[in-house]
Specification:
2 copies of one chain form a homodimer. By secondary structure, chain A is of the alpha+beta class. The first copy, chain A, has one domain (14-109): Arc Repressor Mutant, subunit A, CATH 1.10.10.10. Helix content of chain A is 52%, strand content 15%. Chain A has 4 helices and 3 strands, in the order αβααββα. Chain A has helices at residues 16-27, 32-42, 51-63, 86-110; strands at residues 30-31, 67-74, 77-84. The first copy, chain A, has a 3-stranded antiparallel β-sheet. In chain A, helix 1 packs across helix 4. Chain A starts with 15 loop residues before the first helix and ends in a 7-residue tail after the last helix. The model of chain A is unreliable at 113-117 (pLDDT under 50). Chain A binds chain B through residues 7-15, 17-19, 22-23, 26, 39, 42-44, 46-47, 93, 96-110, 112-117, and chain B through 7-15, 17-19, 22-23, 26, 39, 42-44, 46-47, 93, 96-110, 112-117. Chain B binds a DNA duplex through helix 2, helix 3 and strand 3.
Chain lengths: 117, 117
DNA sequence: AAATATGCATAATATTCTTATGTATTCAAA
DNA sequence: TTTGAATACATAAGAATATTATGCATATTT
């Protein structure tokens, strides 16, 4: 039997772009499905990206000029690789830094009960 | 002149209930405006709760049985104090713990760039 | 006297996500 | 061998959560 502990989804709100940009800043290029699996693995199954959230986000980041795509055929299946533009690289850095600072602030707000590290 | 650094608002999404419950778990009773000012102070002006978000959230938590209210007249002005029910106390604890765990997971995902203490 | 701060509240709108659905290929197990 | 699970993309309807704008009213400071 398998008990899967998922976060109440609301906490995840607003972090998707940051996660995607960060992964791409470490991986040269990734495709959508790969991103969902990587996040699942890195979070021990605690963060499960849904396709309905991921694909629109990727498309939006692309339309904003932060990502570019490269379509590859794997047999008869299509795979769409995403990679960061120069602007994407700096945005990724900024987003991660912002999130880190946000965590510090939240830690102050919630401090007594938090034992991080 | 005053330069105010605010987080991109999206990060705050989903954390409001946790913040409110946590503050109330430390303060016996608080009123809405007081909560906005406390959060502003604790976050060094980085988190500014809007009334349009706070009041509906307070009402919702009340309707869920996590908060109870007590209205007090201050001169001719009304002040509505909120305090936790028993269920509110345990929910507050659970929410804070969940957030702490979420932060640990996010830290793993974004680790290389995070230097938290 | 006017501006700022205190104090509550709601409506219209925007953003971001979930859930549901659709299409199609590949691989492993029964 | 066929059935289910995994791989791989995508979009639409709806829910949840927040912003912005607005409204009302009193108290304090300049």
């Amino acid at each position: 039997m398998h008990i899967c502990f998922m976060y109440s989804k609301e906490l995840l709100k607003g972090t998707l772009k940051t996660i995607v940009l960060k992964l791409l800043s470490e991986n040269e290029k990734m495709y959508g499905y790969e991103i969902t699996q990587r996040v699942k693995a890195l979070s021990d199954g605690k963060i499960l990206l849904t396709e309905g959230a991921l694909y629109p986000t990727l498309h939006k980041l692309e339309s904003e000029g932060l990502l570019v795509t490269e379509t590859v055929s794997i047999g008869k299946r299509i795979r769409k690789y995403y990679s960061l533009t120069n602007e994407g690289v700096s945005t990724a850095e900024a987003k991660v830094n912002e999130f880190a600072d946000f965590m510090l602030t939240m830690r102050t707000l919630l401090s007594p009960n938090l034992s991080l590290s």
